Amino acid sequence: MKGMFFLAAAILSEVFGSTMLKQSEGFSAPLPAAGVMIGFAASFTFLSFSLKTLPLSAAYATWAGTGTALTAAIGYFIFQEPFNLKTLIGLVLIIGGVFLLNSKQTEAADHKAQLTIEI
């Protein structure tokens, strides 16, 4: 449970850092540029904490996929960036990939539990 909390904090920090990257105007605006550094530093710190209890493949895929989807939503709603069918298909594929990676971890844990019981 603690790992999921850290993963959620990592995702939100990464989305904040990405949003500040857009606002920093090529690192020419000091406050948003500082937000980029703080956001990404916090994100990787929280991600590393989450990896103490979560599998790397599932945590990283969730972090990257969810961050991508949220950043695309922010781009659309805040920065009026285009959102079309190709964008939707890409996001669906990313989210589907995250789901598949996470379901693989669940199946492996279930299989391991079955092996432990049989022995």
TrEMBL record:
<feature type="transmembrane region" description="Helical">
    <location>
        <begin position="58"/>
        <end position="79"/>
    </location>
</feature>
<keyword id="KW-0813">Transport</keyword>
<feature type="transmembrane region" description="Helical">
    <location>
        <begin position="85"/>
        <end position="102"/>
    </location>
</feature>
<dbReference type="InterPro" id="IPR037185">
    <property type="entry name" value="EmrE-like"/>
</dbReference>
<dbReference type="InterPro" id="IPR000390">
    <property type="entry name" value="Small_drug/metabolite_transptr"/>
</dbReference>
<protein>
    <submittedName>
        <fullName>QacE family quaternary ammonium compound efflux SMR transporter</fullName>
    </submittedName>
</protein>
<dbReference type="Pfam" id="PF00893">
    <property type="entry name" value="Multi_Drug_Res"/>
</dbReference>
<feature type="transmembrane region" description="Helical">
    <location>
        <begin position="33"/>
        <end position="51"/>
    </location>
</feature>
<keyword id="KW-1133">Transmembrane helix</keyword>
<comment type="similarity">
    <text>Belongs to the drug/metabolite transporter (DMT) superfamily. Small multidrug resistance (SMR) (TC 2.A.7.1) family.</text>
</comment>
<keyword id="KW-0472">Membrane</keyword>
<keyword id="KW-1003">Cell membrane</keyword>
<dbReference type="InterPro" id="IPR045324">
    <property type="entry name" value="Small_multidrug_res"/>
</dbReference>
<keyword id="KW-0812">Transmembrane</keyword>
